[in-house]
Amino acid sequence: GASVLLLRACLALLASPIYLLSFLGVWEPFCRKVFFPFVLGKLSVIHDKKSKKHKQELFRNLPDFRGPSGALRLLEIGTGSGANFQFYPPGCRVTCSDIDPSFQEGLARNMRKNEHLQFERFVVAAGEDLGQVPSGSVDVVVATLVLCSVGSVGSTLREVLRVLRPGGAFYFLEHVAAEHSSWRYFWQQVCYPTWKLLFAGCCLTRELWKDLEEAKFSELKIQHISLAMPWMPIEPHIVGYGVK
């Protein structure tokens, strides 16, 4: 515990200009509109390469959840720039949502690249408040690298279950806390406060599999995997889906 606090203080000292900007109320708007989208764009390139095979396997059975009409209505929470579009089946009707509208330029580019999809609309909303999406109106909800930064995981999962039709599915791929006895978890604890400040509220030590197990899914499939991210404390991940 003392070692964690000491190293946290050293890291905070190195990032002291950012902490000062945060205290003055300048950092958060700059981070969300400029810094975070830019850095996320760079990191996403690496993460997408590492996770591609896992996403291909994860989304393979998406067509199984088509609604009675034969269409697949999909809502993606925290769409970002649309890195998942390539994995969705042809004709899929996609509604995009994100708390940050600044991603829309990159999103528009990916929409043009993925003409096999039907894009419905873009909703500016947090995962905890999807009130613009009617209850039981979608067949599938997707969230990748989103639950780490929502204000309340429980509230987000309740919203997911609300908007899903009975028999619909929630697909996820998220980074999570490492084993408590591991060095990875030690460094996650050290980096936690500064990382959260730098990356728009992203939490390194959430045990998201527990939240998913506590949610009221009738069926839940979770796999723990590792994605090697150089010099990044986000190697442990979970991937899977839950059925309403």
Description:
With 244 residues, this protein is of the alpha/beta class. Strand 2, helix 4 and strand 3 form a beta-alpha-beta unit. Helices cover 40% and strands 22% of the residues. A 7-stranded mixed sheet has the order 3-2-1-4-5-7-6, with helices on both faces. It has one domain: Rossmann fold (3-Layer(aba) Sandwich). The longest helix is centred in the first third of the chain and has 32 residues. The protein starts with a helix and ends with a strand.
Short description:
One of its GO terms (molecular function) is S-adenosylmethionine-dependent methyltransferase activity. The protein is of the alpha/beta class and 244 residues long.
Percentage of residues in DSSP E strands = 15-25%
- End-to-end separation in angstroms reads 40 Å
Mean pLDDT score: 92
Which residues form runs of ≥5 with pLDDT under 50? Answer: none
InterPro entries: Methyltransf_11 (IPR013216), SAM-dependent_MTases_sf (IPR029063), Thiol_S-MT (IPR052356)
Pfam family, one: Methyltransf_11
Protein name: MET7A protein
GO molecular function: S-adenosylmethionine-dependent methyltransferase activity
Question: What secondary-structure arrangement, pairings included, does this model have?
Answer:
Layout: H1 2-14, H2 16-23, H3 27-58, E1 73-77, E2 93-98, H4 104-113, E3 118-124, E4 138-144, H5 153-163, E5 164-175, H6 183-198, H7 208-214, E6 219-226, E7 236-243
Parallel strand pairs: 1-2, 1-4, 2-3, 4-5
Antiparallel strand pairs: 5-7, 6-7
